[in-house]
Design goal:
Strand content: 5-15%
Largest sheet: 7 strands, mixed
Family: Belongs to the tRNA nucleotidyltransferase/poly(A) polymerase family. Bacterial CCA-adding enzyme type 2 subfamily.
Shape: elongated
Catalytic activity: a tRNA with a 3' CCA end + 2 CTP + ATP = a tRNA with a 3' CCACCA end + 3 diphosphate; a tRNA precursor + 2 CTP + ATP = a tRNA with a 3' CCA end + 3 diphosphate
Helix content: 40-55%
EC number: 2.7.7.72
Keywords: ATP-binding, Magnesium, Metal-binding, Nucleotide-binding, Nucleotidyltransferase, RNA repair, RNA-binding, Transferase, tRNA processing
Distance between the termini: 64 Å
Pfam families: PolyA_pol (PF01743), PolyA_pol_RNAbd (PF12627)
């Protein structure tokens, strides 16, 4: 069942752990399977053909399945933030000790390769009760767990899950302790990007807002609670033909489209956002500004097209028009027609007429505005 050859299993206790165990009992598909090995040393794992990949603790890739096998370990708080831990991995660490360091009880279940459940912290009962509960008081040692708990709620809120009161108290305690400020931007963004791909991403941000974490990690979003509420409502309103992998990026764009340029830039820098997220957020903001004009004229539309770099990146136009259509369908229809007309005008046709250099650019801009004027006059 583990895919581990018999020669590699001899003398080792191997257990499936974490998300694969949890989601299988929820009836959800499992993509990745993680394993814990009890009673082994790094040298033994390498002798059996496993390839070491862990930097902070011993993790190995199986020589055939390439699944991750981690040696059982314990952790002790030694500093601030997500990385402030001393890791102890040795053959004498038990499975129960390894599971005790995990964040939530539903993530602290294991099973043998034959499917026998090992559940020392009541994860199955919490799964059935639809409760997100911390494994131990050590929950407060890792500030990233505030974000992870919010993300799991965003995943399972549709099933009726809730955060246990005592776990919520620890999340608030972590915020008040100042530990969140020690999280590096990359870790905050990794959890946030994952949350944007969950079934209810708004729940993630609202949970962080309610415990005070959002104001620490993304203060630009909470300067106006009413605006935040509107932004969270927009997360479920996206162009209908997006691919699944595109949805996190578009959800982020909807979340930040109301922010001014300075606040968007500050938030992007704070989280070290990927370029694709920064760009789409800015394009969505420009589209929002165009929609908010009572009757956009040709100059307004041309500035929008210039702002989204439509002349070089024409693939951006239709999705943004589809975004506009969610709130202003009539304007979107006019823009779609105007874009079809103006995109047929090519610089090479003007060059054939003798335009060159600066004059070519000026004439191209003039004719584009004329075409836009003509189409907008027909609305």
């Amino acid at each position: 069942m583990s895919g581990l050859p018999d020669r590699c299993r001899e003398g080792l206790a191997v257990y499936r752990v974490g998300g694969a165990v949890r989601d299988a009992r929820l009836g959800w598909p499992t993509v990745d399977t993680d394993w814990v090995v009890v009673g082994a040393t790094p040298e033994e794992m390498q002798r059996r053909g496993f390839r070491p990949v862990g930097r902070d603790f011993p993790v190995f890739l199986h020589p055939e399945t390439h699944e991750e096998y981690a040696l059982a370990r314990t952790e002790r708080k030694s500093g601030h933030g997500y990385t402030g831990f001393e890791v102890h991995a040795s053959p004498d660490v038990t499975l129960e000790e390894d599971l005790a360091r995990r964040d939530l009880t539903i993530n602290a279940m294991a099973e043998t390769p034959e499917g026998e459940l090992i559940d020392p912290y009541g994860g199955l009962a919490d799964l059935q009760a639809k409760v997100l509960r911390h494994v131990s008081p050590a929950f407060v040692e890792d500030p990233l767990r505030v974000l992870r708990t919010a993300r799991f709620l965003a995943r399972y809120a549709g099933l009726g899950f809730a955060i246990a009161e005592e776990t919520w108290a620890l999340m608030c305690e972590l915020v008040e302790s100042g530990e969140l400020s020690h999280l590096v931007a990359e870790r905050v963004w990794t959890e946030t990007e994952k949350a944007l791909g969950e079934p209810a991403p708004a729940v993630y941000f609202r949970t962080l807002q309610n415990c005070g974490a959002l104001g620490v990690l993304m203060p630009e979003l909470v300067e106006d609670d009413a605006s935040l509420g509107g932004a969270l409502d927009r997360l479920s309103r996206l162009p209908s033909d997006l691919l699944e992998e595109e949805r996190p990026r578009w959800r982020w764009a909807r979340l930040v489209e109301h922010l001014g340029e300075a606040r968007q830039a500050a938030l992007a820098e704070r989280l070290r956002l990927p370029r694709s997220y920064r760009d789409l957020g800015r394009q969505a903001a420009l589209t929002r500004q165009l929609r908010q004009r009572a009757t956009p004229d040709a100059d307004d539309v041309k500035r929008w097209l210039d702002g989204i770099d439509a002349w070089r990146r024409s693939e951006r136009v239709q999705p943004l028009i589809a975004l506009l259509a969610l709130d202003a369908p009539a304007l979107a229809e006019v823009l779609a027609r105007a874009w079809r007309a103006v995109s047929r005008l090519e610089a090479k046709s003007l060059m054939a007429e003798g335009f060159r250099g600066a004059e070519l650019g000026q004439e191209l801009a003039r004719r584009r505005c004329a075409l836009l004027d003509e189409e907008l006059a027909r609305r």
